[in-house]
Amino acid sequence: MVEIVYFSSATGNTRRFVEKLGYPAHRIPLHPHDEFLHVHTDFILITPTYGGGNIKGAVPKQVIKFLNDATNRSYCRGVISSGNTNFGPAYCLAGDIISAKLHVPHMYKFELLGTSEDVSRVREGLKEFWSKISPTPAQKS
Fold first, then answer.
1. Is 117 helix (H, G, I), strand (E, B) or coil?
2. Are 127 and 107 in contact (CB under 8 A)?
3. Interval 42-84: pLDDT, tens
4. Spatial contact of 44 and 77, defined as CB atoms under 8 Å apart
5. 108 strand-pairing partners
6. How far apart, in whole angstroms, are the C-alpha atoms of residue 85 and residue 28?
7. CA-CA distance, 122 to 135, in Å (whole number)?
8. Which residues are paired to 4 by β-bridges?
9. How crowded is residue 82: how many other Cβ atoms within 10 Å of its Cβ?
10. What's the rounded Cα separation, in Å, for the pair 25 and 27?
């Protein structure tokens, strides 16, 4: 079963996109005083890109903190990012940065809230990707 970990700011754009996917999802806390999220299962990370087109600050600090935990980082199997095409070359840069650092695929890029086509593509892509990385019951024995 596909598991998603995501970060969404107070605007909720990423949260709304994730909810449309219909897969189990866990939100990285928005505020430092919120309980820290620990994961113990494979997941796909979905994150917005910050920084207004600058490389510095492209990955949200909350995502950095989450991934600085070695256990959390070890379960990440891929990343999907959102951004704004007005950022030019920095469009969805957070996903590129995380993909390079964690050596996982940057699976998809979408703008702002994403479209219904984005939701459909991501849903199907996750289903296909997960079936390739998850052992079948016969493989587990």
1. helix
2. no
3. 999 999 999 887 788 999 999 999 999 999 999 999 999 999 9
4. yes
5. 80
6. 24
7. 21
8. 25, 44
9. 25
10. 7
The sign of the torsion formed by the CA atoms of 39, 41, 46, 47 equals positive
Alpha helices (H) in 1-140, listed in sequence order:
13-21, 61-68, 70-74, 93-102, 116-133, 137-140
Q: Which residues pair with 25 in a beta bridge?
A: 4
Structure tokens at 19: 């909810």
Orientation of helix 93-102 relative to helix 61-68, angle to 10°? 10
Indicate the pTM of the whole model: 0.91
| Dist CA 111 CA 131 (whole Å) | 26
Task: Provide the pLDDT for residue 135.
Answer: 60
Contact 109, 82 (CB under 8 A): yes
